[in-house]
Design goal:
Layout: H1 6-26, H2 30-37, E1 73-77, H3 83-90, E2 94-99, H4 103-112, E3 118-119, H5 131-138, E4 149-152, H6 161-164, H7 187-198, E5 202-207, H8 210-213, H9 218-229, E6 233-234, E7 238-241, E8 252-259, H10 298-304, E9 312-313, E10 318-319, H11 353-359, H12 372-381, H13 385-407
Parallel strand pairs: 1-2, 1-4, 2-3, 4-5
Antiparallel strand pairs: 5-8, 6-8, 7-8, 9-10
Helix pairs in contact: 1-2, 3-13
Length: about 400
């Protein structure tokens, strides 16, 4: 993160006070006061500023994991904006098909990867719950006993602790109903049916840790037992924290990996460093897309400016990030409702979609379409591509390369 010297800090603090005084005097919002004086929100500063700075190395980019084409074909389900797919692509897998029922997410996939075969609106439902339709679509491009990889993360809302905390258990909107959920709660088993039909060489199931804990693990165990009875060697469900794998963000995800060739898949080795949020967040967003920031109200800015590193604004329920430790989990919030992103470590405003995407390790040239709120949804729901790339490489070496060695 760029260092600002004491003189510039004092000048920015003086400017902040002038902007606030003018807004109050004229009875206008701070955005108007900033515009009047020729400034933007990015010129603002916290009262406690630049006392911390990330001085460690930069985290690896997704491009640093690029490998030669491995020839391992990949099919993804519940693809979202493509976080897992990007990671496996970087690891050399051959993208064969993606199933996604949200038309906006499909637009993002097609805009960034026009060569991918995306099954979704407006040409296909993309709905994994329609098992027969998915099977019929895939049978045209892959065989049964598929010598490739299936990946999928059934929608996690029924199992989410975050959504659980939003409502009381007596409320009709209580979300953590798990497998009793009429649609999303059954998608895991729909995915299992598709795996059993095509019998891929390896599969990956991704979800929030709450899936493992629901009903003391009974439902997940049932799915795993079903796959094992179909001939799969399934490793014990494992929770990985993205911060341990080169991602500048605390983000726990559950993974279940199974193989049918007798080789137990391995997991990537944790990094010996945790990257702070300041390793990817600067004052300048550059020329990337998706850099729009929220137009905060005057009273919000006044509260934010007084926050110390890591401190929470209780009214807005947003946290100022500490540049020296990984970010809190990027959430599927948005500019116009549905939640908000965290506060920038050195600028008293919430993060842009692009800044959240950097915390998620998406490349800067990957563009998210739709309203800003729905861009946040796409980024916040994704698996960090860098984490996915490491999983892909570990699976390639432990499952697919091991299989080749046995048959050589």
């Amino acid at each position: 993160m760029q260092r600002i010297d004491n003189t510039e800090t004092m000048m920015r603090l003086d400017m902040l006070q002038r902007i606030i005084r003018f807004a109050k005097k004229e009875g206008i919002e701070i955005s108007d006061s900033l515009r009047h004086h020729g400034y933007t929100f990015d010129d603002l500063i916290y009262e406690i500023s630049h006392e911390k700075q990330w001085n460690g190395p930069k985290p690896k980019l997704l491009s640093d994991y690029k490998k030669e084409h491995s020839g391992i074909p990949l099919v993804s389900f519940f693809t979202g904006c493509g976080g897992i797919d990007l990671g496996f692509e970087a690891a050399g897998y051959e993208h064969v098909a993606a199933f996604e029922f949200n038309e906006l997410f499909c637009k993002t996939l097609r805009k960034n990867r026009p060569d991918w075969k995306v099954f979704g609106p407006p040409t296909h439902s993309g709905d994994v719950s329609n098992v027969r339709e998915v099977i019929e679509s895939l049978e045209n491009i892959i065989p049964v006993n598929f010598e490739g990889m299936f990946v999928g993360g059934p929608p996690c809302q029924p199992f989410s602790i975050a959504s659980n905390q939003r409502f009381s258990k007596s409320c009709n909107n209580f979300k953590r109903v798990g497998f009793e959920h009429e649609t999303n709660g059954n998608l895991l088993f729909d995915y299992v049916k598709i795996i059993k039909h095509f019998n891929p060489a390896c599969f990956l199931i991704e979800n929030v840790p709450g899936l493992r804990d629901l009903d003391s693990g009974e439902q997940l165990s049932e799915a795993i037992r079903d796959l094992e009875e179909s001939g799969y060697f399934v490793d014990k469900p494992k929770v990985l924290n993205a911060a341990d794998y080169g991602v500048p963000q605390f983000r726990e995800r559950l993974f279940v990996i199974g193989s049918r060739n007798g080789n137990f898949p391995i997991y990537p080795t944790p990094s010996n460093i945790r990257y702070g949020a300041g390793s990817v967040l600067g004052r300048n967003q550059g020329n990337a897309k998706n850099t729009e920031t929220r137009m905060h109200k005057l009273d919000s800015i006044q509260r934010y400016c007084k926050l110390d590193y890591g401190q929470r604004d209780q009214l807005g329920r947003v946290d100022r990030l500490d540049p020296c430790i990984p970010s809190k989990t990027v959430i599927a919030g948005g500019t116009n409702g549905g939640g908000r992103s965290h506060l920038h470590p050195e600028i008293p405003r919430t993060l842009s979609v692009r800044e959240c995407a950097r915390l998620q390790t998406f490349p800067d040239d990957y563009v998210f379409v739709g309203s800003t709120a729905r861009q946040f949804t796409q980024v916040g729901n994704a698996v960090p591509p860098v984490l996915a790339a490491q999983l892909a490489l570990a699976i390639s070496s432990s499952v697919f390369q091991a299989k080749k060695a046995k048959t050589a």
